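User: Round two. Same drill as before: sequence, then structure, for each protein.

Assistant: Same drill it is. First protein:
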Amino acid sequence: MPRSALKRSKRVVVKVGTGVVTRADGGLALGRLGGLVEQLHELQRTGTEVLLVSSGAVGLGARRLGFPGRPEGVVDRQACAAAGQGALMAFYDGLFQRLGAACAQVLITEEDFHFRQRFNNLTATLEQLLKLGAVPVLNENDTLSTAELALADGGKKGGVFGDNDRLSALVATYLQADALVLLSDIDAVYDRPPTTPGATAIATWNEATTFEEGAASRLGRGGMGSKIQAARLAAQGGVTAVITSGDTPGVLRRVLAGEPIGTVFPPQPGLPRRKAWLAFATAPSATVHVNAGARDALVERGASLLAVGVERTEGDFAPGSVVRVVFDGDDIARGLARHGAHELAAHDRGQLVIHRDDLVLL
């Protein structure tokens, strides 16, 4: 049973959405956040490492700057992020200090995920914070980055993450967490918007599950579709994911005790860290289109990609760039190119393009 594994969790990523962080009027939900921090501290006291991914800065800043709802323009959202992030972090810091605990703000931009060295540096920082007993509080640096603020497709058009749901899944996957808990203002995933007559909660997600998405929250961006995508991503990386309500009393304790609340996404065998980075945490800089023979060699035989299998390239790329491997219009892999686009054109047809150790099938 996928829920039984939650009882053995030693590293947990918790993501709280705007609907959990703020009240309907955009102000901080003081009691709810206070209870959440107490639960995080209790997990720490019992030997569990915890990381918190928190939305809410833009919504909080919008209220402080006098916006009636979610700002539409990217620059307006950046201004709201600047106004709200400090207040949000100060509140978390005060709550943790009252419990005799420490937290640390970690702001991330999309570029931190594009380059392996920067991603490794981020990972090392998070690992050290956990070792020192601090709770990392993560958010995208919306004041500088426009990726999260502008994307409405969850990053499917080439970005790494379009919201904090996906960010939390990437962190959980790459730090090899045991569990990802996505806290929303809805108690589970429903097969249709929960206000619809006959809507049914889904206890366990599988790839045959059907789902009809409703609207995103008034001040948030993610929506339930974004949370499902993030939970599936984490599960593909070997992490057990749960979507449930942040309003449920003792929700973290109950989820990690294996109680049947929310919707659970069972884990699949996890990828090694390097291949997890390639699969989930990179934005390809170009596309390599391959023929049927190369597709069969990659998918069926686990071979490397040779120049003879390349039909054409799309976009410019340098040696070491992450490229998308496409056959007949479908993404089949991502990998690190051994040669740039111009070098590739000049080499013989037996030239190695992507070594199988630098390639991950999607």
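Second protein:
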Amino acid sequence: MPEFVVTSDDVNRRLDHFLTRELPAHSRAYLQHLILSGQVLVGGRPLKSSYRLRNGDHITVTLPPPKPSTVVPEAIPLEVLYEDPHLLVVNKPAGMVVHPSLGNRSGTLVNALLAHCTPLSGIGGVERPGIVHRLDKDTSGALVIAKDDETHRELARQFKDRRVQKLYLAIAWGNLQPSEGVIAAAVGRHPVHRQKMSTHARAGREAVTEFRVLERLGMLTLVELRPRTGRTHQIRVHMAAIGHPLFGDPTYGHSPRDFTQSPLAPQVAWFRRQALHASTLAFTHPITRQWMACCAPLPPDMECLLTTLREWNLLSR
């Protein structure tokens, strides 16, 4: 039963926003459900999610025990980068959804994990056992999973405190200039298209991404990206915002008009996802306290795309 006492730093903050920050292992929607069901008390009274905190407010949260998962285990092969009794890191393939939802009840990473190992942490709920963070369906790369609640809480805390180092590789449109820099632009829900994120949101949250050019490939650029924050679609939105959307991104990307007339266009038309890969994930092991870095090799589709672009770039010189 977590307990908190509100200090002057959090006066006037919404109750649900406060709990989302203090209990990073749980989603905001889940915490709002707890508030609505009376399992969050402020000064011994149930209040609304929108309640504005006052100095000295005493908050208690009753976390019900996790229910058994209803997700069906599926023998889907996993590329395991690291595993021990407390956690594992996998190289998630592009096209795989992380956890079940209304439109995806099977074939997810969670389905595969339940067949690979048990138990998994129950903090994320019955639909998300072990899931500490996520990658977009069509983003490949390193993802850490917790096997027990203690590990889950500590990993969630590290993500919240920005102590987890994440390195991505991406192929972006255009000749990105300068060769390195920082994109600092708040990200929030798009004001019109609610399924998208935007740097022009009415209530965006701080988002910062470092970038470094690795290779120039004519009309495209291979980029290394280090997000300092972890907003939804952050890298995809930031790159689009500076005029260099990711190649193949169906939501935030576009093909330049002159590229569609290029002889190269048919040769890379098969690549139909955002060219984004989480190549390295580094953190302090929650139990051993040792620093560890897990590297996920570039997937075959991005390797093939790079080979095609390099060959074409040489021919066109």
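The chain is about 20% helix and 25% strand.

User: Perfect.
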